[in-house]
Amino acid sequence: MEISRKYLNELTYAVIGCAIEVHKQIGPGLLESVYEKCFLRELALKGLLYKNQVWVPLQYKGLKLDAELRLDVLVEDILCVELKAQDGLLPIHEAVLFSYMQMLQKPKGILINFHCINIFKEGQKTLVNDLFGSLPEE
Question: Is 137 a domain residue?
């Protein structure tokens, strides 16, 4: 199957729906690791394939470095997801996710913060890079 912007947008909607379900069930105030376990379970229940704690390769001037960079979740081998459980999202969180997207050559990512009142309104942010723009619309 060819990846399209429409497919990625629908996948994003489904993944955010999984986060909303976790938040609805257990609410804010817990550790990120708890949300990650519940989120992974929800992805599995929805039939979405995922990998968690994905090693992010770092190359610097021709040298591969193990900088111990890890993406929280990679959904369907195309959508990067970083989870947070803290007061608010900061610009550095977006920068980290964007860097992971670039290094993994993935077109879209989602930041999800479970310490909020409403995941859809304030607890998530989607990012795209140039790869997303080069994908077909449908």
Answer: no
Domain ranges, residue 46: 5-130
Radius of gyration of the CA atoms of the chain, in A: 15
**Which pair of structure tokens corresponds to residue 83?**
């989870």
Q: Provide the domain count of the chain.
A: 1
Indicate the DSSP class of residue 55: E
Per-residue pLDDT tens over the stretch 25-34: 999 999 999 9
Give the per-residue pLDDT at 1: 62
Tally helices (H) and strands (E) across the chain: 5, 7
CA 9 to the chain's CA centroid: 13
Which CATH number does the domain housing residue 62 bear? Answer: 3.40.1350
User: Per-residue pLDDT averaged across 59-68, rounded?
Assistant: 90
* pLDDT recorded at residue 2: 81
